Amino acid sequence: MALVAERMAGIGSDIRGKNFWAALDLEKQGQKVLKLNTGNPAAFGFKMPESVREALIANLDRSVGYSDVRGMIDARQAIFDYHKAKGIEDFDIDDIFIGNGVSEIASMIATALFDKGEEVLVPSPCYSLWTNEIILSDAKPVYYKCDESNHWNPDVEHIKSLITPKTKAILLINPNNPTGVLYSNDVLLEIAEIARQNNMMILSDEIYDRLVFDGKEHTTMAKLAPDLTILTMNGLSKSHVLCGFRCGWMVISGPEAARKEINEALLKVASIRLGANSIMQTIIPAALADTEYPNSMIQPGGRLYEQRKATCEELDKIPGVSYVKNDGAMYIFPKIDKGAEQIANDKQFAYDLLMDKHVLIVPGSGFKWDAPDHFRIVMLPEAEILRDAVRKMGDFITKNIK
Amino acid sequence: MELIANRVETIGTGTRGKNYWAALDLERQGKEVLKLNSGNPAAFGFKMPESVERAVTQNLHRALGYSDLRGFAEAREAIYEYHVGRGVKNFNIEDIFIGNGVSEVASMIATALFNKGDEFLVPSPCYSLWTNEAALNDATSVYYKCDESNHWNPDVEHIKSLVTKNTKAILLINPNNPTGVLYSKEVLEEIAKLARENNLIIIADEIYDRLVFDGKRHIPMASITEDVLVITANGLSKSHCLCGFRCGWLVISGPAQMRERVNEAILKVASIRLGANSIMQIAIPAALSDSQYTNQMIEKGGRLYEQRAVTCEELNKIDGISYVKNDAAMYVFPKIHKEIADDKKFTYDLLMEKQVLVVPGSGFMWETCDHFRIVMLPEVEALRKAVREMGDFISKL
User: Fold this and answer.
1) Average pLDDT, chain A
2) Given A267, A289, A311, which residue is the final one in a domain?
């Protein structure tokens, strides 16, 4: 009998993959490594919102017990109000489940909904969480292309060509990780129409929705398609810099019958683990009321805004590299235009960059991108550090790719 | 295509089943319900240890970011010291994984280890978490009897009769939930021998190990065998009344080669979710050095001690009931010597008539309709009244 489960062979995260461990080894050897592999703002000096600190300490005695299986009622009320205000209509407070990060939410969804042989349409490039959870639930991720030449919007024609009788759901990540872009309403409406015609549910991971630059506006998918079953994911890890709190949630919206059935299944899955951690739940109302905190990061002069600016300015100076400027989040996904064919293996490329420049990035293959010509930059360090890091990347690319 | 995954049907809801939701409905109607379905001390006025409150408040800035995949190094250092202090050998600090409660730890273990067709020996009665996680990962739970006439110790002969070539692991819950007993050293040694002979992994859920009464001593499974792979689960939910923190961990001990392979698989599973919540991790060193908090609950005069005393006192007065006095934890699992056709119906009726919610034996995969679990967390007088009401209800059967 095998010691370890076979399903583990399909599991991988290049964000915490071999290059990550190699970076830790370098650090153990006393080298300074700039780790741009994960969107973990706390590692780059972002501070806890004062509103959150106060709420946490004032409510600590409420955190000692298990919460409701779905989550604390006042936290769900705040979440309900938030999504109502974003234009979601058909759901109620019991259609909200709070989890230990969107990580646990994704696991609950996959466990409750996917069976062997079913197909889930996921974007390429795609954040690895979803593909891992889909594989663990015996379903199959089927990758649709996002089109760099169309501002990284999903390629609707490609999506249509991938639909089979086994297609159960489509995943949208908007604002996107790793490209950082915002999808256009026209594309979202087209995807809604495809879902409608093919009886697919939509999973919409919108955790970056409060981190949108340049006065652009994020449209929540569930607002555009109230007649469809949509599971919207969100959380506080990014907008309030609370990755360590593991605070995520989902909202089920759409036709009542399907909503009820899904709710019941999710409730069963959720009840296995009794409840999400209570501590982060006590601060949800305060955090959602504190819009000032995320806004201060994304306005001119704010860290995320200025860090993006510095990154783009430096990227502009690298010959042979192009990029789509991100609209939101903290990621950009540049392309090596010239000489990419010289990169046989982008993991090796990222490893060599790490060894030469002590900068850790995740290459495109870590996001199921199938050509070795992209990499993701996490734009979390202060502007000057980021400037220096992007220069080093440029230096490495011009030196190694002719 | 079905809307819902087939596996959802296999999930047993244990302590959060239909009766639980019926109890919540009663509460919504304005009725007062005594909910003895779940071991959640905070619901009964147990307060957070001051040591924990201080540690969280002072270190909050450290809780902002993702932790290491396995958990903060200093939390794992404290956990390492704790288990070494309890006599566990053959593991190191990297063999510790911190999770969002033993719930997540169980999920990680089952995901990393079980294949379709694998058999998992689990106790009957058994807390539902482990069987649910096994089922979600396509393994088959095979129930071994715990023997009420032998202080609820696992029935070793029964275990032996259940071992097949597909048996992969055996679960021990010691101190036990729902029986509250401590297993004897002899039985643990026999199980270790059996695991050794049949190449089984032992999973030892020992979360109640600090809540042992009467000066008795808990023996960690991993302390009596060095050559069998043991995965020990523990956490702070019960000993420090921190259920809501979701603080659990696992320790892999045993032969280096197996340990490394299991470690690698669990690391992969853990990396999917990046890390456990950081807030509870900053409380671990402070909590594990605060044994005073735990001890004052279990000593004479302490709440858990006195609540058990009063429960037993009242159970003694009920005709047609017997029980094995628990050695630990906050549970007792009495037997009803009367005809009951459906024990879920029995507890539903008890809920409706007396507004007291308990989980029946079937919620713990006990196969005859003659047991139920009492969670001994309310203050003595509330508990006394509740047990009297149970007695009243049972005597009318």
Assistant:
1) 96
2) A289
Cβ distance B4 to A12 less than 8 Å, yes or no, reads no
- How far apart are the C-alpha atoms of B108 and B97, rounded to whole Å? 10
- How many Å apart are CA A178 and CA A131, to the nearest integer? 14
Residue A232 and residue A178 share a domain: yes
Sign of CA dihedral B342, B347, B350, B351: negative
Is residue A48 a contact partner of residue B57, using CB atoms and an 8 Å limit?
Answer: no
Residue B356 pLDDT class (50, 70, 90 cuts): very high
Q: Does domain B50-290 have CATH number 3.90.550.10?
A: no
**pLDDT tens, residue by residue, A209-226:** 999 999 999 999 999 999
User: Which of the 8 DSSP states describes residue A65?
Assistant: S
Task: Compute CA B292 distance to the chain's CA centroid, rounded to the nearest angstrom.
Answer: 22
Dist. CA A386–CA A315, nearest whole Å: 11
CB-based contact, A261 to chain B, within 8 Å = yes
- Are A322 and A235 within 8 A, CB to CB? no
Distance, in Å, from the CA atom of B132 to the CA atom of B135, rounded to the nearest integer, reads: 5
The pLDDT tens digits for A134-173 are 999 999 999 999 999 999 999 999 999 999 999 999 999 9
CATH class, B6-47+296-395 region = alpha beta
The answer to whether the CB atoms of A56 and B60 lie below 8 A apart is yes
**A274–B243 C-beta distance less than 8 A:** yes
Domain tally, chain A: 2
Report CB contact under 8 Å: B61, A3.
Answer: no
Of A85 and A400, the one with more pLDDT: A85
Q: How far is A369 from chain B (nearest CA, A)?
A: 18
pLDDT digits 0-9 by tens, A62-102: 999 999 999 999 999 999 999 999 999 999 999 999 999 99
A8 interfaces chain B, CB cutoff of 8 Å: yes
Q: Which of A14, A52, A246, A266 to mutate to test the interface with B (most CBs of B within 10 A)?
A: A246
Q: Is residue A333 part of a domain?
A: yes
What six digits make up the tokens of B139?
């393994």
Interface test with B, best of A274, A278, A280, A283 (most B CBs within 10 A): A274
Cβ separation B273–A101 shorter than 8 A: yes
Write b or e for each residue in A344-375: b if 16 or more Cβ atoms lie within 10 A of its Cβ, otherwise e.
Answer: eebbebbbebbeebbbbbbbbbbbbbeebbbb
> Can you give the residue range of the structural domain that contains A389?
6-47+296-400
Q: What is the pLDDT of residue A341?
A: 84
| pLDDT of residue A14 exceeding 90 | no
